[in-house]
Write a structure and sequence with these properties.
mainly alpha, 141 residues
Length: 141
């Protein structure tokens, strides 16, 4: 259950960087994301499993991005929760966060849309979520 919740929180982080309100729902309530549409930006090519077919290379890039985004996500959540910010400061913090996450995604050869799609797939496909978790552990994350 903890692994599943971690992936849900990370989905919030990844989608948040893309400017979607889904992230706010994901961060606030683990159940909120289940109510969102499960449509993806890429077509499904695995029968009943949602999302795109993911090869080993992309899976490793995705896992590395998750590991790298974790501390960024933890910091933004901590900063937003503990600091009294003006609207401008809040926007600047979010913009800095977005730049950092986009940099991580670029270094890991993922677009924000691809990252979001893979996160949604990890949420809705337990077998894929397990593959991701296995690769994360192999990366030491």
């Amino acid at each position: 259950m903890k692994k599943y919740l971690t992936l849900r929180i990370l989905l919030g982080a990844g989608v948040f960087a893309c400017g979607s309100t889904l992230a706010l729902a994901s961060m606030g309530s683990p159940m909120a994301t289940q109510q969102q549409s499960s449509s993806s930006a890429m077509p499904s090519s695995q029968g009943n499993s949602p999302g795109p077919k993911v090869g080993p290379g992309e899976l490793h890039h995705f896992a590395a991005a998750i590991i790298a985004v974790r501390p960024i996500n933890q910091k933004i959540r901590r900063d937003l929760a503990t600091q009294k910010l003006t609207q401008t400061q809040h926007q600047q913090l979010i913009q800095a966060y977005t730049r950092k996450v986009k940099t991580v995604l670029t270094k890991n050869h993922l677009s924000p849309v691809a990252y979001e799609t893979l996160m949604k797939k990890a949420q809705t496909n337990p077998a894929f979520a397990q593959r991701v978790e296995t690769v994360i552990k192999a990366h030491g994350g």
